[in-house]
Amino acid sequence: xxxxxxxxxxxxxxxxxxENHDTKAELIRSGLEHLTEYGFASxxxxxxxxxxxVPKGSFYHYFASxxxxxQEVIACYDQYFGRKLDAYLLDETVAPLVRLSGFxxxxxxxxxxxxxxxxxxxxxxxxxxxxxxxxxxxxxxxxFGSWQQxxxxxxxxxxEHGSLSRDADCDELAEHFWIGWxxxxxxxxxxxxxxxxxxxxxxxxGSLPG
Length: 210
Known about the structure:
Blueprint: H1 15-38, H2 45-52, H3 56-62, H4 66-89, H5 96-113, H6 121-127, H7 135-161, H8 170-191, H9 195-207
């Protein structure tokens, strides 16, 4: 005689499942904040755990290692930043090249809000890649590639709009944008001013073939 399976209750999921999900999300959020400001190599897990109020032993319930934690943080940042880029670069109510200005203005406001202590997590990690686990390298390359594709798409829209030459290599220009952008963000942190971001955008737009 088989024993019937108990019926599942409808309604909210078990409290422990919600708590597990919320704790993991809080750890990732805390990691985003900490790694964006201090980088990965110099960041210990203890500071991140202390901020969330999670014991060190419990950390490995959610993540297999510090490396896997870092990879999840990178993936989360990529999703967040990708949504931000899409919000500006896909906005068809605004001329394509003006969309880049909207993105830059948002970035300037974000850096000022955090007193220029936080920059771009992906750019920060790229600068310390030789001291990171090897698995991070390709992940960072892929993230930059995804961001470049978004800017290239915006530039191709500018070609359709007539504000960018049809002969322009949008993929190459998008790569140049991000190479310059990461340097501008780093300089903005150093001088505690958004001026480098403005300069980068102005020179980038000024260099585009009309």
